[in-house]
Design goal:
Strand content: under 5%
Largest sheet: none
Number of domains: 2
Helix content: over 70%
Structural class: mainly alpha
Mean pLDDT: 78
Radius of gyration: 25 Å
Shape: globular
Length: 491
């Protein structure tokens, strides 16, 4: 039965009306997978030399063992962002005389066609065979391969389970965010060391090879856990969307904004209930930690303001960039209804502006924790936040009026270019160029701090003039409204 269902998927792919476009996309993805596999294999064969240089003459095996849990922790995050749920593949069979267990097994088997399953083997296998096998023998190297593959298998079905749970309950998504943040912060501030745990765990595996049965048991348990969840929730409404309906009144804190609050509630529910915007929200949360790359103490001490400003911009505005470039296109499926409703255009656009400002402010408040690294970062973060809420948010809504391509919310964000036009490609470049155009003259004529102050002051002035800018955006929106309606209707 699994073979028959796989045949059906193959025929469905080639008989689709969009087969040509699908083939082109699969070729692009195939080249990316080949490139990624090649890099992984090259890294695997070079790992011995790389670790020898990093260890500065010390034994490389403990260094290697300390990396394993880091890899699989990062693997969970990347899988959550990039790994798709093959749910739609079985929807046509739910009404057929096919046993549910067979469809569950098909879903599990089909999901295994993923590069993430084999990447750890490409990276770790050469080192395990040549170095660990050379020192401890072939039996230990086999045990390590079983452990690595079992962890990859465990991660695979764990992420599928978590993603399916987030469809049914938003609290799972929030819990997943919090778990990632807590682990990263605990390791960064040395509350515990993931490296030390990894070294201890896999050193024990080398000493007691039968311990690999634990990893194997975890992999098998994740398979059965995922299968059990699918069997218990194998219904159309559970596979596609949340089973409980929420009203805008559920967001009580938005009710104080009146009509603006109702419109923002629609956007928030759209973000939390659909795959592509929800993935972008997760990416934005992950980008909050990019400050550790840009806000290094040596950069602060050497006054590298260019790098500090770039890091501050990324940390405080990533959601505005990723979500804002499709600010109106997200609602393309019901855009006709919004335009036909009893809503003023200015009210509708202002609700979008408020939403972008709220998310940028949340990112800013969280990023203030970087002030513990140095006080210099706080005025830089304040300046970029004022630039975002005053200039960036207004430009986002203005550029959004030139977006004429609709978006399918059910599709993931990875390798998805739907809805992207010339305005989206130029969007980030325009924002950066405007920021540099404000900052650079003051740096050349006075100093870096004056450029940072100029960013903040000009952002504050534009924020105060928000209603004036909104009137200009409304005029532009009304000119392009029918082009947007026509473009959003195209499938």
């Amino acid at each position: 039965m699994i073979y028959t269902l796989l045949q059906h998927q193959w025929k469905s792919f080639w008989r689709s009306r969009s087969a040509g476009r699908n083939v082109a996309m699969q070729i692009i993805i195939g080249f990316f997978v080949l490139y990624l596999s090649g890099v992984a294999i090259f890294l695997g064969f070079s790992l011995d030399k790389i670790l020898s240089e990093v260890s500065h003459g010390h034994e490389v095996i403990p260094v290697f063992l300390g990396l394993i849990l880091y890899y699989f922790s990062f693997d969970i995050i990347m899988r959550f962002i990039m790994q798709d749920l093959p749910t739609l593949a079985v929807l046509p069979y739910l009404t057929q005389n096919i046993r549910r267990n067979k469809l569950v097994r098909f879903l599990n088997v089909r999901s295994l066609f993923s590069i993430f399953i084999f990447l750890p083997l490409f990276i770790f296998l050469p080192f395990i065979i040549s170095v660990i096998g050379g020192k401890y023998g072939s039996m230990i190297s086999l045990v390590m391969v079983i452990s690595i593959f079992s962890l990859a298998f465990f991660n695979h079905f764990l992420v599928l389970f978590i993603k399916r749970k987030t469809i049914l309950s938003q609290w799972w998504l929030i819990g997943f965010f919090l778990a990632i943040i807590l682990v990263i912060l605990a390791d960064y501030f040395q509350i515990f060391s993931l490296r030390n745990w990894s070294v201890s765990l896999f050193t024990f595996v080398i000493k007691v090879p039968t311990f690999c049965i634990v990893f194997l048991s975890m992999a098998i348990a994740s398979w059965y856990n995922n299968s059990g969840f699918l069997r218990n929730n194998f219904y159309l409404e559970n596979l596609e969307k949340s089973s409980g309906e929420k009203k805008s009144a559920d967001y009580n804190w938005l009710q104080r904004f009146g009509t603006y609050g109702d419109l923002m509630a629609i956007d928030i529910k759209l973000i939390l209930r659909n795959k592509r915007p929800r993935t972008l929200l997760l990416l934005s949360a992950i980008f909050l930690f990019y400050g550790f790359l840009f806000f290094k103490p040596e950069f602060v001490d050497k006054n590298r303001f260019g790098q500090l400003l770039l890091g501050s911009f990324i940390v405080t505005s990533m959601f505005m960039i990723s979500y804002g470039q499709f600010v109106f296109a997200w609602q393309s499926l019901h855009f006709d209804g919004l335009m036909a409703g009893n809503n003023q255009i200015k009210t509708y656009i202002k609700s979008k502006l408020f939403l972008l400002i709220i998310f940028s402010t949340i990112s800013f408040l969280l990023s203030l924790l970087y002030g513990f690294i140095s006080w210099k970062l706080i005025p830089i973060l304040i300046a970029t936040w004022l630039f975002n809420i005053g200039i960036h948010a207004v430009l986002t809504c203005f550029i959004g009026t030139r977006s004429y391509k609709g978006i399918d919310l059910s599709k993931g964000a990875t390798f998805n270019y739907q809805g992207i036009g010339a305005a989206q490609w130029l969007y980030s470049l325009i924002i950066l160029v405007i920021g540099v155009a404000i900052y650079l003259p003051f740096v050349l004529l006075i100093n870096a701090w004056s450029g940072i102050a100029a960013l903040g002051i000009l952002g504050l002035i534009c924020f105060i003039m928000q209603d004036w800018w909104l009137d200009k955006i409304v005029i532009q929106f009304q000119k392009n409204k029918y082009k947007m309606l026509e473009g959003f209707r195209e499938k």
